[in-house]
Fold this sequence. Notes:
By secondary structure, the protein is α+β, with helices and mostly antiparallel strands.
Amino acid sequence: MKRLAAVIIMLWCATTLAAQAETRPVVVELYTSQGCSSCPPADAFFHNELSAREDVIALALHVDYWDYIGWKDSFANPAYTKRQKAYAVAAGHRSVYTPQLIIGGRDHVVGNKPDKVNGLIEAHKRAASPVRMAMRRQGGTVWIEAEATGAVKNMVVHLVRYKPEQSVDIKRGENAGKTLTYTNIVDGWDVIAEWDGRAPLKIKAPARGDNPVVALIQETGNGPILAAARIR
């Protein structure tokens, strides 16, 4: 039975890779903080618009560098601060800030500028990718297959889990007294493989819990995100 299940999954992935090229969603990462007074408008835009789009994989990563000003972000993780700083280094920027949106691993924009964000998303949707990917979930396991269709650099495969929604009563700090609703709150991020694109990628990984799971293929060094898939 295990062998039959594996064959079925491989056949499914083979037939899905071509379709993925037509429906490749754009990954949008929001770097935010419960303690940042400038973040609520960006959080609202993210909640009301970006997280509801099927053509966007919207991921909220809460950073910890504003925790010292009176309110400790209950979703913050120093690993997300590290990821944001790595993007800054890759782009040649000297500092990080909130709210910041990073689109497709490439474009950096202030998070409360909807028109600019939407324009960048449309540009990424029109751009061709040298990687196609398909993902399937069965119980607590995901199977990921990918192939390179063009020139690629070394890449890493990320597996991301997020909590769909949660409201928080902010009791201190710059947003004291507000009840804010957060969406697509990242609560798990793992690098599960490295890939050079020379041979097709076929891997499986554990996917704990029932929350949505996202797979990303990204150039090493916080480069562009070349492929992404999500299972809710």
